[in-house]
Amino acid sequence: MFTFEKQDKKGVLNIKVSKEEWENAINRAYEKNKGKYNIQGFRKGKAPRRVIEQNFGDSVFFDEAFDEVISSEYSKFLEANTNIVPAGQPHVDLNKFTIETGLEATLKFDLMPEFKLPKLEGLGVKKAKAKVEESQIENELARVKSSHARFVEEDKTAEMGDFATIDFVGFLNGEKFEGGESQDYRLELGSHTFIEGFEEGVVGMKKGEVKDLNVTFPENYGAENLKGKPVVFKVTLKKVEKKVLPEIDDKFVADTTEFESLEEYKKSIRENLLKANEEKIEREYEVALLDAVAEKSGIELSDSMIDFEVNSMIHDFEHRLSHQGMTLEGYLGYINKTVDEFKAERREDAEKNIKTRLVLQRIISEYKLTVSAEELDEKIAEYAGKYQMNVDDFKKAMSSDDYLFFQNNAIMTKVLNFIKSKNENK
Hints:
Radius of gyration: 33 Å
Low-confidence stretches: none
Number of domains: 3
């Protein structure tokens, strides 16, 4: 038996389980778990329930029974009240329990925000026009220059702007510290790659010279054991080089690209940059349209929903850091932020993520948008082409998670195109 009431943005469900229902739940828990217990004098799985309880305590099956009976009652409630849509897992409080009377419990859960989807026409979002600045072309040419640079060794003392190849070993209180040693490291002097004072200390050194550099790690350094600590780096200068950039002319273009002249090459750069800018503007336009729908929907979120989303985002970020050999604690130390500050910075994005998901789901539902087998095949073929693979071979290599990814990708494309079709030239 249950009673329900709404409290602000939460649902409160009171459940009562009778003595008989509780006893049945205990018996189901016993039948499910009796094979786990070894009782002397009984074959495994054959000991009576009372014997197991005498050996392991009267409450040995209580947790399993409680979870099962609460889950069952909660499911029955939701099936009978399809208008109630939880936004997350419920928090369960046991209010009263006795063997003679059964139990009473309260489930509290966030309710999915109630909102009305606005008209999708005339959202008032303007799409920018893609263009390419000359500075973008020059930046790309500079990048190409740098990628084809030569390093020429010079017999001179190191100066700012030079590239110094060095060996170094760091000492803290006379002992080597982890991460403070490297060989044949090519350091651009003046790049501020190393801590303050290090690059300045290399300036003036000659090839073969060994020098002790006394420097201090900053207070906000990522490694806790080095924060604000004075250390000594023993540095050996192995060579000094100048970075020589090539001249970008017709000959360079003909030797290094598929084009015959610099003008042809610049034209190709412009076309590629324009395409990239168009794609960027299209993505920004789509995001702006979704933001406009969410804003006009007037969705109000509970703090606990936003907190849950923030924690999920932090967990995903922590997982990505682990693949780079970093921890969240180490990263936060490096950027000099606490966990609470880091979470606070992500609340706005978390709120936006939730609202975007809600309007997408509502648009799909209200406008009955679906993805056909042909549309899904088109999306898969699009990706297969990016990897230059035969579509059939690409499909054979796909997992069930891959299919789900492409289905979500295809429906997302369909929703965005649907919204854009109602706003173009409006």
